[in-house]
Write a structure and sequence with these properties.
Layout (H helix, E strand, L loop, with lengths): L2 H16 L3 E6 H7 L13 E9 L3 E6 L3 H6 L9 E5 L7 H6 L4 E3 L6 E3 L1 H8 L4 H24 L6 H14 L3 E9 L1 H5 L13 E10 L2 E10 L5 H20 L6 H15 L11 E4 L6 E2 L13 E4 L2 E2 L2 E2 L2 E4 L6 E2 L8 E6 L2 E6 L2 E2 L1
Parallel strand pairs: 1-5, 3-4, 5-6, 9-19
Antiparallel strand pairs: 1-2, 2-3, 7-8, 8-9, 10-11, 10-12, 12-15, 13-14, 15-16, 17-18
Helix pairs in contact: 6-7, 9-10
Length: about 350
C-alpha cells in the first residue's frame, strides 16, 4: 500500500470503530497528514487549512475556493490523489459542506455542529509515522540543523536578538521550510524566561537559538547554544547534566513503553541530579509529528510508544537545556538533528553512546 492508501485505510477503520459515515477535516495538521505533505495553507499562523476535506465511505471531496483550486491541482497534485474538487467563488459562501454531510453520521477534527469530535483519535493516528514520513523527517532534521548552525557560527557580539532571529528565519526559509517557533535569547534573558521571545537586546557573550521548523507539515525541534570565550564552569556542569538527562530519556523511549512510565523515569532522573524539582519549571517534551508536540509526557499519560514515532525531549536547568528530535527505531533510536560539524559530548547509557551537542565556543 502507498502512504496515501495506508492513511485512507486508517480513516475508514476510524469510521468503522465509531460507526460513522464520513470524516470532516478542517485543521491544517490533519489535512497535511491526510494529503501526505501537501501545502494547503496561505497563512502559516492559521490552524485551519485553505480547504476542507470530506472523506465518506466511497468518496473523497476537497472543498475550497477559486483562488486556491488551481494551485492545489497543478502544484500539490491533489486531483491525482483522487480528491473530487468542489470549488466556490471567493466572494460566495460555500454550502458544499452542509450539502454533502446532510443526513450523515459525521466525525470531525474539532467542534462542528452534529459531528463527533475525533481530534484526539486523529492525533494518535498522526504520530504513527509511515516510512515515507520518517524519510521526510530526516531531510527536515538535516535542513533545520544546517540553518541553526549557519546562524550560530555567524554570531557576533552586539547583534540584537531580533537580528539573529531574522537571520534564522531567513536560513530556514532558504531551505524550503518555515520557522514556526523562532526563539533567540541572550545572556541573562536565557535563564530569566523559559520562552524568551527575541527583543532588541544586543548579544554580549551567551546566546540560545530555538527552532521549530516545518516542512511537509512535519515539525522538527532543535536548540543550540553559543558562548563567546570560555564557558563558565557552572554552566558547563549544568550542560553536562542536561545532556545526560536527554540521553537517558531518549534511550528509555522504546516501543511498548507508556508515557506514564516515561514520566516516572524523568522525575527520578531529575532527582538523581540534585535538582529534583527542576522538571516542574518546564515541560519535558513528548511525541512530535504535525505539531511541535503532539502529546506531552505527563503523569498518568496513557499513550504507548511504537516504532517509527518521532520524539523531542527538552530537559532544562535554568539557562541551559538539551533539545533534539529523534525517531524511535525497532532496535535503536536515531537522532535526526545531528551532523559531524557541530562538536558533541559522548554520553554512555548502558551499551549505547549518545552524542550531545556542546555549547559552541566562539
Amino acid at each position: 500500500m502507498t502512504e496515501f492508501d495506508q492513511k485512507q485505510a486508517r480513516i475508514q477503520a476510524l469510521l468503522d470503530e465509531h460507526q460513522l459515515d464520513a470524516l470532516l477535516l478542517r485543521r491544517l495538521d490533519n489535512i497535511t497528514w491526510a494529503t501526505c505533505g501537501a501545502r494547503l495553507y496561505v497563512n502559516i499562523a492559521s490552524s485551519e487549512a485553505a480547504a476542507v476535506l470530506l472523506i465518506t465511505r466511497t468518496q473523497r471531496y476537497l472543498i475550497t475556493n477559486n483562488l486556491e483550486a488551481a494551485r492545489f491541482k497543478q502544484e500539490e497534485h491533489l486531483d491525482a490523489q483522487g480528491w473530487e474538487f468542489r470549488v466556490a467563488a471567493w466572494y460566495e459562501h460555500s454550502h458544499e459542506v452542509a450539502r454533502l454531510t446532510r443526513g450523515l453520521g459525521l466525525g470531525a477534527d474539532g467542534t462542528f455542529p452534529g459531528a463527533l469530535d475525533l481530534s484526539r483519535e486523529l492525533a494518535q493516528m498522526r504520530v504513527k509515522l509511515t516510512p515515507e514520513e520518517g524519510a521526510r523527517f530526516r531531510v527536515l532534521g538535516r535542513l533545520c540543523l544546517e540553518a541553526i548552525e549557519v546562524v550560530a557560527r555567524s554570531l557576533e557580539p552586539r547583534r540584537t536578538e531580533q537580528a539573529i532571529s531574522a537571520r534564522l528565519g531567513y536560513e530556514v526559509e532558504l531551505r524550503g521550510a518555515q520557522a514556526i517557533t523562532n526563539i533567540v535569547a541572550t545572556d541573562w534573558r536565557v535563564g530569566a524566561f523559559r520562552h524568551a521571545l527575541p527583543t532588541d537586546k544586543p548579544l554580549e557573550r551567551y546566546a540560545m537559538l530555538v527552532l521549530n521548523g516545518r516542512r511537509w507539515g512535519l515539525v522538527c525541534t532543535v536548540t543550540r547554544f553559543v558562548h563567546f570565550g570560555q564557558v563558565p564552569d557552572d554552566l558547563r556542569q549544568r550542560h553536562a547534566i542536561t545532556s545526560r538527562l536527554f540521553a537517558e530519556f531518549m534511550c528509555a523511549t522504546r516501543p511498548g513503553k507508556s508515557f506514564a512510565e516515561l514520566f516516572e523515569l524523568i522525575t527520578a532522573e531529575y532527582g538523581r541530579t540534585g535538582f529534583p524539582d527542576e522538571w516542574r519549571k518546564h515541560h519535558q517534551g513528548g511525541s512530535v509529528g504535525y505539531e511541535p508536540r503532539e502529546f506531552f509526557v505527563v503523569p498518568n499519560g496513557s499513550e504507548i510508544i511504537t516504532a517509527g514515532q518521532a520524539f523531542a525531549w527538552n530537559p532544562s536547568l535554568g539557562d541551559i537545556r538539551s533539545v533534539d528530535t529523534f525517531l524511535v527505531g525497532e532496535t535503536q533510536n536515531e537522532i535526526i538533528t545531528t551532523n559531524e560539524t557541530w562538536p558533541t559530548l559522548p554520553i554512555a547509557v548502558g551499551d549505547q553512546v549518545v552524542p550531545r551537542p556542546v555549547i559552541l565556543e566562539l
